[in-house]
Design goal:
This protein is an alpha+beta fold. The protein contains 9 helices and 13 strands.
Length: 303
Amino acid sequence: MIQSGPVTPPHITDLPIRALTVDDLHRCADLSEDRGWLREDHKWGLLLAAGNGFGVDAPDGRGLAAACVVTRYGNTSAGPDLAAIGMVLVADRYARQGLGRALMTHVCDGVLKGTALTLHATPHGRPLYEELGFATTGRAEMLVGTFQQEGAADTEDAPHIRPAVADDLPRILRLDAEVFGADRTHMITRLPAFADQLLVSEDHGAEGMLTGFAAAWPNMHTHVVGPLIARDTGTAKALITALARGTTRPLRTDVDVRHEELLAWLKQRGLESVAFNAVMTRDIPDLPGDWTRRWAPLTVAAG
């Protein structure tokens, strides 16, 4: 009788990577909590429904060892297809063992080979992404706080702000595609159900002229302002002011640092800077669209 020796378990980076579904939502939220992030169940639900999740089951049977989400946007005004990568997480007990690199290599060089990529990187994750071929093309500043309405009153030349209705959706989609530089219909059409508020701005006396739109969606104890698309700084301020009137929660938003006037105004209104993330791209020199009218993303996890 031949006796076999003990079975050597596979190295963590050799474990299979599988597609995630909405049924994995709570496992994803548990993984966020494991790494000290907020659970963000509501956001995970959107990303898993509108995008493609990838993950590694923990060999100890305790949920997920790693996960990330990909949101595809198809052809861009700059040419190639575009996809955003977000929520890249590795369980604390499997950290620093190459699992994050293995997952990102599988997604970037396998699943998304030939696709232009973008992501928002924390200072901790940025070195890995640079090794994988990403370059920093911008920065976003995260702000959180209770918005102070005093001093933010409407002016005579302020745009008309109102709740969006069903008939606005085609115009919102056209404006968004023009400003974002790619078709994200599969994300924007989910906003009425996903967000607690969806507002549009119009010019006084320019009937039907849509100048911007913005949403506020619930994320744990805050309302996140995003997406925020606006013709100019005044329109962006008016949309945020109107959204703030509709909630008692603190606001959170992630603003392109090039929008210096809006950032200064938000800080005057009571929001505080809590972090900076690098906006990174691979196989595309910069994000498509018009950054001057793109003030905040729907979520940094979706580009």
